[in-house]
Amino acid sequence: SERVNVRGGASALRTTPIDRLNFYVRGRYENQNGERSAQEVFGGAGYEYDLNPRTFLFARFDLEHDEFQDLDLRATVLGGIGYFFIREEKQELKGRVGAGYRHETFTDGTITNEGILSLGYDYWCQINKRTRFTHSGTYNPALGDFNDYTAVFDTGLEMALSDDNA
Fold it and tell me: Which has the closest alpha carbon to 30: 20, 22, 40, 21?
């Protein structure tokens, strides 16, 4: 069989001593034996503002399209409060809890609008001067039905392309 699987993503982060602004996009395309078997795009923006060295407020906005879930558009906006469990020079662990709103439009014309809860965490540790391990997870159940949820978990390595970026 012949199979093509392409995944990619990019992010841009602006950090100051009291806040962080992040833009991100990722996509996946799969083709097996000449037939497309996956095509999805996900992107958004997030902002965090420190209330003190451990506690922060956050806001996020995400957009998603997934042809094989018949999802034309999923738009999610949410906000809440977070806490740094570890905030060191070489590693960081933070948790988030909040609430928001999710709108979904499907190919068959179905539209859903619902309030959501948001629970998440982010972890990173610096492996060496140019390499960082990252892991994050977010669980967003509908307020009226915890069996209706989205969950996203990401694990990766970030590598600086030059010593100037390290």
Answer: 40
Nearest CA among 75, 44, 74 for reference residue 60: 44
pLDDT in tens, 10-67: 889 999 999 999 999 999 888 888 888 788 999 999 999 999 999 999 999 999 999 8
H/E stretch holding 155 reads: strand 145-159
Residue 126 has pLDDT above 80, yes or no: yes
What's phi and psi for 67, nearest 5 deg? -60, -35
Contacts 24+ apart (CB under 8 A), 156-165: 157/127, 157/131, 157/132, 157/133, 158/131, 158/132, 158/134, 159/130, 159/131, 159/132, 160/129, 160/130, 160/131, 163/129, 163/130, 165/130
Q: Which residues pair with 151 in a beta bridge?
A: 139
- The mean pLDDT value for 94-123 works out to 96
